[in-house]
Amino acid sequence: MKQSRKNRMEAPGMLPPHDQEAEFMLLACAVHKPDALVSLTEELFYDRRAKAVLAAMQQLRADKRHVTERAETFEHELRLRLELRDFEPINGALNDLPSPAGYPYWLEKVQDCASAREVGRIQVELGRATASGQKVELAAYGKRLQEIAASSTTTVGRALRSVIPELIDELEAAFANQGKLRGLPTGFRRLNKVTLGLQQCRLYVIAGRPGQGKTAMGLQIAAHVAPPAPPWRSSHWKCPPWSWPGGSSRLTAG
User: Where are the alpha helices (DSSP H) in 133-245?
Assistant: First the structure.
């Protein structure tokens, strides 16, 4: 029975921003256009299998250039070099690829996802440095963020350009605050370093697969943010929980 593209492309543990289909479609185009491999780097890809395929393709291009001149022989050599679990997604992409001429389209999608990942990485890195009081060169980071945004022309690029100035302003304010939390502590030290505390007008999403502890973590944060009132107070902060997957019984059990 032929598997759907969604099932073939699915891999556990993957987190956005990335486009698994675009990564393998880009590699499928490179099978037909092997000269494009020169411009592809490992940093562009998020999927572990896509990285393995890229490494095998580039190695073949270096060792057996003649076998990469025809897509059929290139694919055959990849089948011999790769483990089955790594070959299956590129094989599916080669079967589904409308045309190798779509290379610029798939490249742009992969590049935008890579840019968004780098912005997230820089944000986390700066957040940790801020929380620990480390000194970093904000101007250099700001320049790099602006370069990332300017290099993207699609929806992702427009979104980055709108977010980055606000991000830089927040980081400057955080450094001026000398690493102190700007919001409510979560009860989790490492989470505090990333978020600098739960701040006003922010929506925080806890994502994960079923059974990984999202509800338990959310309830622990709520209990830390809104602890029971001390005896000398008649009122206390309230934090009503809301859970889409389950009702009150599941929340109580958690």
Answer: 138-150, 155-176, 189-195, 214-225
